[in-house]
Design a protein that fits this description.
The longest helix is centred in the last third of the chain and has 18 residues, at 323-340. By secondary structure, the protein is of the alpha/beta class. The chain is built from ten helices and ten strands. The protein is globular, with a radius of gyration of 24 Å. Strands 1-3-2-6-8-7 form a six-stranded mixed β-sheet, with helices on both faces. The two termini are 29 Å apart.
């Protein structure tokens, strides 16, 4: 819709809606005063958006029927084929539904965004396609990505493929279910408070929350730039390293990426584990919300690593026990700020 300056009558009507009474002369005066501030808007409106080109060509995809989506894990199914060759050639990927995929609907788990279609691909999508991956669609995520369960999305619950009566974990709930069910080779999840790690644990996957800023978050709906992470969810360690090789590194756009150091992650698997140290957080055990069985499993796993020659050390962070009390107000503040800053969110050092 082309912009036009408001008339004096429209200004008077707006003033009345705010409880301000303006006579005709005052309304005309306001219109005259506002004119210089509005004069540049038609020029701005006429400028091209200069968005990056979208390639390869794609269709909007389809919303699968329940019979085609028994786990409730797909939001949209599509097929976008990447490069003919590359480290991920022929491998299928599902994207968490807060990752922008140009031309394909995105909801972030909420009907508030129903009908929104991103105009660009997230950086990770471009990198996956360039590496030869096939984007199979968008995986359901929890409403506003704000749940560790798989029951809050407006499209309905996501079921665990190992036992459909149980949760798949969240908020990357659909990602966990689809990879575990073998419907895709891997998925891209996002994590602020466990959203990659929880569904990976519940579904028996390898889920990586990378070092902050290692993988660009450009083109992904944010919660708080200081805790936003995006990473791979796979059925094995090597696949996880393979995907990380493809998506890690600065893109020149994401302000989270400062002094990023990347490695060759598949090659690193051949180096062995000599010299690796594993920290066991003392405050993570035997607290009121912990399950002794889980505590025992974690310690047993650490003991197995020690038998393999890794150095296992216990570390203490006394304030760790306070963090669960702080989590909810921090998340609430972050989400509120995003809504009030047109999606920019707090914690950005580049704004």
């Amino acid at each position: 819709m082309s912009f036009r300056p408001p008339s004096a009558e429209e200004i008077a009507e707006t003033a009345r809606s705010l409880g301000i009474a303006l006579d005709a002369a005052d309304a005309a005066a306001y219109a005259e005063l506002a004119a210089p501030f509005l004069a540049g808007l038609p020029t701005l409106e006429a400028l091209p958006d200069a968005l990056p080109p979208v390639h390869p060509a794609r269709t909007p995809g389809v919303r699968p029927m329940p019979a085609e989506n028994p786990l409730g894990a797909w939001y949209v199914k599509t097929r976008i084929e990447g490069a003919a060759s590359g480290p991920l050639a022929g491998r299928t990927v599902a994207l968490k539904d807060n990752v922008m995929l140009a031309g394909v609907p995105m909801s972030n788990g909420t009907s508030v965004l129903e009908g929104y279609v991103p105009p660009i691909d997230a950086t990770v999508v471009t990198r996956l396609l360039d590496a030869g991956a096939i984007v199979a669609g968008k995986a359901v995520c929890e409403s506003f990505c704000a749940s560790g369960g798989s029951h809050t999305s407006d499209t309905g619950p996501v079921r665990n493929p190992h036992d459909p009566t149980r949760t798949s974990g969240g908020s990357s709930s659909g990602c966990g279910a689809l990879v575990a069910a073998g419907e895709v080779d891997f998925a891209i999840g996002c994590d602020q408070g466990g959203s990659i790690r929880i569904p990976s644990a519940y579904c028996g996957l390898v889920g990586l929350k990378p070092t902050h800023g290692l993988v660009p978050y450009t083109g992904i709906l944010s919660m708080d730039a200081t805790i936003d992470h995006v990473g791979p969810m796979t059925r094995g360690v090597r696949d996880n390293a393979l995907v990380l090789d493809a998506i890690a590194g600065p893109d020149g756009l994401d302000g989270r990426q400062r002094f990023v150091r990347i490695d060759r992650y598949v090659a690193a698997l051949e180096r062995g584990h000599a010299g690796l140290r594993v920290g066991i957080l003392r405050e993570g055990f035997a607290h009121p919300s912990s399950d002794p069985r889980v505590d025992d499993c974690v310690r047993e796993g650490a003991a197995r690593l020690a038998k393999q020659g890794l150095e296992v050390v216990e570390v203490g962070v006394p304030d760790h026990r306070l963090l669960s009390s702080l989590l909810v107000p921090v998340f609430q503040s972050a989400v509120a700020t995003i809504f009030h800053t047109d999606g920019c969110g707090p914690g950005r050092e580049d704004l």
